[in-house]
Amino acid sequence: MQNMSYGSFIATHRKKSGYKTITSLSTASGIHKGTLSNIEKEKRKPSLEAVKTLSTLLTTTTYKELMAVCGYWDMTEEYKETSKRNAERFRIEFDQLTDEEILKMPFAHQGKALSEEQKKIFIKELRKAFEKAVSEKPNLDDSQ
Question: In terms of pTM, does the model score above 0.70?
Answer without folding.
Answer: no
